[in-house]
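Methods — Computational structure assignment.
A single polypeptide chain was analysed. Its primary sequence is given first, followed by the predicted tertiary structure written as structure tokens.
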Amino acid sequence: MSSESSTSQPIWIQDRDTVIAHDSNVEWRYQEPPDYSRTNQYLKQQSKSNHIEGSLEAIVQNLVRAFEMEASFKTNPQQWVSIVADKFRMTTNGGSAYTAQDVADAGTYNLFLGDSEQYKASEEDFESSAHLFHNAFPNGFLWELIEVLAGPPNVTFKWRHWGTFSGSYKEHAPTGETVEIVGMSVARVNDDLKILSLEHFFDSGSFLNKLATGCPFHGQNNS
């Protein structure tokens, strides 16, 4: 795909760094735009999929990464270019439907994971949950699209999230292992390819169990 045709694409299906550079007067959560240079480096080294620019796979991957960036770093959903803010809803494993404002307030980790023995979303806020997982995965918790199973308007796709468990998770010592989640999502989009709703399906228990396998710090020191 030529760079000319690439730049004519809507901004929200281009590379997320392009989305960030395009934004002005954004209410950033940490007062400045995020820097994905290290993340991009790790993605280049560790990604299993290499989607051709302009392909449906690349477009959907760009769109979801743009949404994840906006959900994490833009506090005002009206400034999110990847979604139709007033209509947007997100569910996980058939659970409650959350608005864009819910996502901005609580954070994706809390809404994805809910309450369980290993993690209690009801006891965490946006900042504490982000700190918890950034601490466990200091080199990032990376995301890539594996394949698109159905195209618009109900874009159905498989994905993987992964990171090296090299920092502590709560009282559990790091194992140094790669922790991976594979899941499926359905993104309902409008004619402009903006997201109207997201449905995620994955095994959250398996993911959290892997983080709880490290030896507790109050127990033996060897892991």
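Note: Residues 56-73 form the longest helix (18 residues).
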